[in-house]
Amino acid sequence: MAEKKIPYKIYLEENEMPKAWYNVRADMKTKPAPLLNPGTHEPMGAADLAPVFCEELIAQELNNDDPFIPIPQEIADFYKMYRPSPLVRAYCLEEKLQTPAKIYYKFEGNNTSGSHKLNSAIAQAYYAKKQGLKGVTTETGAGQWGTALSMACSYFGLDCKVFMVKVSYEQKPFRREVMRTYGASVTPSPSMETAVGRKILEEFPGTTGSLGCAISEAVEVATSTEGYRYVLGSVLNQVLLHQSVIGLETKAALDKYGIKPDMIIGCAGGGSNLGGLIAPFMGEKLRGEADYRIIAVEPQSCPSFTRGKYAYDFCDTGMVCPLAKMYTLGSGFIPAPNHAGGLRYHGMSPVLSQLYDDGYMEAVAVPQTAVFEAAEQFARVEGILPAPESSHAIKVAIDEAMKCKETGEEKTIVFGLTGTGYFDMTAYEKFHDGKMDDYIPTDEELQTYFDKLPKVD
Ligand SMILES: *Cc1c(COP(=O)(O)O)cnc(C)c1O
User: Looking at residue 2, what is its pLDDT?
Assistant: First the structure.
């Protein structure tokens, strides 16, 4: 009966909202490895990064010491438009699965960008504006980051130039139009507008592009245009920092009802939602105050954690960005064209990479048809059409709940539902038509990319 007191959706009051982001690096004994200059392999300091990134974001990127960084009032005010996001008890899913497990999900899809990406986009646009910049450049794959950044830039009156991976530009015209609605310019990548784009097109005519290539183009434009800087929607330490609002809200909501999760599950592309969701829980784990199972879920077609190497690598195809030490499949890796479910970046957040390497978290890779089965199962009972990316977490949450059914254990599972899938209906269509398959790269294929990792000693 006590059970019933927990509402379907737990919302926080305004005065319970986080006032500062939590920086998990402060509690890590082994800090994530520094970014290196791609030419000299020397660690990059603030001055080296200044031509590419905004000043205050660089400070956050390099800050391994302060556990809390206050959220500026303008950003907190913007957050109030769409936060707190609900922590939902998945009663209907539990009922459907007939599991004794208690399942909760933190839903980040309740804003026009349809994902958690707005949490960092608004922060990055704010700091760019504060620095007096004219605009920012970025890349987008599936389009969620580009959408979120376009919204944030229009809010602060900044120009926004988005390089969109060509295959998505062509397959997702509606995403593109949302970005243009917010005033962004959207260029299919690779393009003829940049030297690196022209070079890639010459080498691989007809290429449908990749995130790594779009990043190179966006960086080139930012560094060669007065008053512009480059911003990135995942992977970087600063992005995980901003996304900690997800975890802080989740923890506050659970604490409010005295709920202690046994496991926390999130999908992992570049690691930003997962890093944000787990941050305060990981902090407790690092400080020895509590223990949780923390599970990253990735696609079998792009298995950075489970089959990648922990090594310094390029963040982009054009090799113009700093080198980051991370779990990586190699910067040349491009997931097979039949890969529909998002999460297609070759590398992984350096923070999460270090935590994974130190044994603080687990990772599993799942096949894409199983992900869409889980997505459909979830959509039918929970009233949200999930993004394919988010559905990786759903898949493993369901698997864990089914294990509880076998053992009779009443475990508490929390997972991140990062967004909605309304712009992904082509992928759903493939699934429904039986045209989706489970591509898994071979060891030989991966080795060709590992062979090209930069040699750093
Ligand atoms: C971008 C995105 C992801 C993956 O990115 P992370 O940085 O790993 O969080 C997951 N879900 C949705 C809905 C996204 O838009």
Answer: 46
pLDDT number for residue 3: 52
For residue 21, the CA-to-ligand 1 centroid distance in Å is 19
CB atoms within 10 A of CB 260: 9
Tokens coding 352: 């999460």
Q: What is the pLDDT of residue 69?
A: 98
My answer on whether 103 and 174 are in the same domain is no
Find out whether 299 and 197 touch, Cβ atoms under 8 Å. Answer: no
Residues of the chain with pLDDT under 70: 1-4
What is the identity of the amino acid at 31?
A: K
Find the domain containing 346 and state its range: 2-18+79-112+237-432
Residue spans of alpha helices (H) in 257-387: 272-286, 304-307, 350-357, 368-382
The H or E element containing residue 415 is strand 412-417
Are 225 and 255 within one domain?
A: no
Tell me which residue has its CA closest to atom 2 in ligand 1. 389
Tens digit of each residue's pLDDT (9 = 90 or more) over 134-152: 999 999 988 999 999 999 9
86 and 151 share a domain? no
Q: 425 C-alpha vs ligand 1 centroid, how far in Å?
A: 17
Query: 389: Cβ below 6 Å to ligand 1?
Result: yes
Q: Is residue 143 part of a domain?
A: yes
Helix and strand numbers (H, E) in the chain are 18, 15
Whether the CB of 390 sits within 6 Å of ligand 1: yes
Pocket of ligand 1 contains residue 267 by CB under 6 Å: yes
Q: What does the alpha-carbon distance between residue 102 and residue 392 come to, in Å, rounded to a whole number?
A: 18
- Alpha carbons within 13 A on the beta-carbon side of 295: 23
Number of C-beta neighbours around residue 73 at 10 A:
9
> Tokens representing 231?
């911003």
The first and second tokens of residue 82, run together, are: 């769409």
Q: Decide whether any atom of ligand 1 lies within 6 Å of the 117 Cβ.
A: yes
Contact 247 CB / ligand 1 (< 6 Å)? no
